[in-house]
Amino acid sequence: MNFLRLGLWLSLLILSGPIQANQGIRVLLPSAEAHFRFAGVYAAYKLGWYQKAHLQVELIHQADVHPVQEVVAARVDFSFMDTRLLWYRLHNKPVVALASIFQRSPYILLGLQHAEKDLALRLQQGHSLPLATDLYPLELALILRQANLLQTLRLEKLQATYQPLSTPGWQALISQQTQVISAWISDAPYRLLQHDAQAQIWQPPALDTPLYADTLFTSERFLQRSPQAVQAFREVTLQGWRYAVANPEQVIDWLLQDAPFLVQRSREHLRYEAQHLIPLMQLGWHEVGETQAKYWAQIAREYQSLGWIQDKNLQALQGFVFSQQTDVEQQIWVRLRPWIFASALGGFLLLLLLLYVLQANYRLRCEMRRRRDVEEALRQQAQSDSLTGIYNRGFFLERCRHQLQAWREQAPKDRLGVLVMVDLDHFKAINDQYGHPVGDEVIKKVAHQLQHALQPPELVGRLGGEEFGLLLSVKNLDEAVRWLHAQQYQLKTDPLQLEGQSITISFSAGMVAVQAQSLANLLKSADDALYQAKRHGRDRVEIFSG
Ligand SMILES: Nc1nc2c(ncn2[C@@H]2O[C@H](COP(=O)(O)OP(=O)(O)OP(=O)(O)O)[C@@H](O)[C@H]2O)c(=O)[nH]1
Question: Which of 148, 247, 336, 388 is the most buried (most CB within 10 A)?
């Protein structure tokens, strides 16, 4: 057994749990023709083997009901039937063959001595053939075919000849109501013997392959619902048959003592039954209860050759024969199917939920990103000058205050803070000469140049109009002056080029060294120095001298 099989079996065990204690099982024993045919069931029943297998078996003996109808209608769970079982299966009755007790058929035609001619004559003349069956058993058709009677008789005719007997067939025969009857080999010949009547027996032709008779069967529905019970019932019944074959006398004792359904059966009669039925099991050639799909297929072909079934009926052969493993696997699949579908559905819903959550999450992230962007834009707006993009006056002063506090708390080593105010020279003239938009470009150029020349924690901001504030971090004031001169020089050597015109820019700057003064004082001092620079002719840098 491979791991997959083992897994499936374990799954079945887990899913189905232990067999329910004393599962109720109803078994229909339908025959009036023979009693020893139920020897296996009866032995297992009497020996308490069904109980041991947790099966609470109820044996129902009723000869006037139809086994297939009873099983399909779920009035009983198991019953027995001859080869007609396949005919019903091929005509949409969902029955499953579990085990064939007899490998050869007990059906015979029985006639009084010299009845052969009468038989042919009666059938050809359209006289009835009294058969206690609603569907002509295949075996009888085979007997008639062998006797060359089927060539002249069509099925319809055979069915037309069907005439249920009011008295048992053997009685009808002895009283010469009829010349020929159908019978079981284990019953009517014994009755005739008892009445010293000479009988002629026609048996089905000896075929190479089994002609299954008395097949234990159940319904597909019951098999699906209780696969373990089916399997257990089958096993125990076949075990009962092994016992019955080995101990027929014991079983006969039980049948005589206890069987509630026994009617007019003597020990001798039951022995006769056992002697004629056990050989039909063909032990030594076949296992007890052996039933094979390929031989059923052959029986189906016989039906076909008789014109009793169409090609389309043959599809129903699939799944007719119970095979322990495949059926158990099918049952596992049947049991697993709702779980698999539920899991798939659950998985699908989970996937939908996951997609929904992912989508909601994505939307949330987008929304958060959008808000962050808006906030950032608002922050930028609040902090920066709309024309140049550098800090606006308010934010520049706030950052200056912050930086001055930091320097106050921890004075930078060998560094000097310097506050500078820069104002473009004669800017009004530029506006006047080139227009306001060009003036804007000039302001932007200066702002960007100054910004790119700085290193953190140095700051630049536009204080208003064409005026800028700077907070430098230098070694000393000379370095600050040199840095400003360099900026002035760069503006002169790299003038703004617009519409073919070169616009030279200069600025004046005033600065003050940061010590302990307040920001307001520093601004005032730098502004004073700037004023000095303007007064001294512009394009200059002045240091506040106090
Ligand atoms: N294009 C432009 N002009 C501005 C802006 N803000 C202020 N101005 C102009 O800048 C000019 C400043 O002129 P003033 O304060 O007289 O100074 P000035 O012409 O630079 O002369 P000095 O500073 O004395 O050298 C004014 O004409 C303002 O209109 C601006 O954002 N864009």
Answer: 388
